[in-house]
Amino acid sequence: MSSDDINHVLALQDPIVKSLVCTELQHGVLIPLKTTLEMGENHAIIRVVITRAPIKSASAAISLLRNLLPEEIVKSFPHLRRCAKPADLPAHLRAQFMNETPQSRQIHTGKSNWIYIIVGPESSVSQSEISRKLSTVEGMEEEVFMRTVPVPELPPTSQVQAAMWSQHFWPTVYRKNNPLGPHPSLISRSTDEIANDAVIWMTLAHQIAQRSKEEGCGEAIGACIVHRLNGKASIVALAADARWHKQQNPGRTGNPLAHAVLRAISMVAQKLVRAENAGKELRSPSGVEFDAFQDAPILADEQKVLDVDHPSPSGYLCHDLELYLTHEPCVMCSMAILHSRMGKVVFRHRMPLTGGLCAEARGHGHPQLAGADWGRGLGLFWRRELNWSLIAWEWESVGLLKPLLVNYEVHA
Ligand SMILES: [Zn+2]
């Protein structure tokens, strides 16, 4: 995007946004984060038990297996073909099985009347019991064929990968989904949605961060929350880090409850409470006021944004809102983002030791941290065991927007 385009996009924003932006807008690029699954352990190989049956008895064998095994075992490999013709097996398996016995050779030559069937993961089926039961099926009385073969545990992420696995492991189906993270089409759609104006919100986060540092409030860390409906974005909250604000005895970390993300989320909450109480007479002017949180506006621009009403004060806390950050949030803030049901997160600087969103090994990309084992990145934006996920990007300034440096040990 050229600077003309950016200025055109700025011209379309609400007056308050135009009044807040006070530096020239710089270009930036959005880079989707990788999930923990995408980073590794993603193609775990496990062994499954397979058998084979005459085609005419295949359905009897399959229903027998279905009755014998729990449903989650029967359905545990939606990406693998349950039944495969001998000709469809990978070449090495064909060669191996074909040369075992004269009967095997027959099964694999000419027009075969046999079919291979996946029974289930080796670890969760009793081969002797299955074998005994299968020997009651017509055509399998003499010998129940049972072998184990390695297969990828999780589905493939592309057609090419499925084709490769079909050659190396077992006939595999690509179901056009990404089991390891957000679907590529969702990422590209979401990226398109925010690409034009992300630079504005990143700049506002940058500005408020700088101001907080200058005024001795906190670290140079800032957050901006945006609501988007039908392509129209409105600013909902703007907050800087305030960990040093009103701290007599700040220690090394200052006030952890005054991190930019927590303050910004709280400001969203304050707006929702305000909307709910609109027109009502209240004894206390504000619903929640805890000094520890320092979530009242401190900087003038924070106040300005807080004064504007929430464009859509319904739904749960930050449901589907967008959060723009100067720094990768700490683990506490990452969980707050998740719990508040944020929809999208963009941050600029990675926090290689303390950040909660990246999935790369800690210390990644920082030569001065190389060599030490800092552990795995948590990738908290997309984890199967958490019941909410969001899309997260790193934003790389390709313009002249100066980096906002904080010590890499800081929890943002
Ligand atoms: Zn934090």
Automatic annotation (TrEMBL):
InterPro entries: CMP_dCMP_dom, Cytidine_deaminase-like. Coiled coil: none annotated. This is CMP/dCMP-type deaminase domain-containing protein. Belongs to the cytidine and deoxycytidylate deaminase family. ADAT3 subfamily. PROSITE patterns: CYT_DCMP_DEAMINASES_2. Keywords: tRNA processing. The keyword Chaperone does not apply. Gene3D superfamilies: Cytidine Deaminase, domain 2. Residues 196-360 form the CMP/dCMP-type deaminase domain.
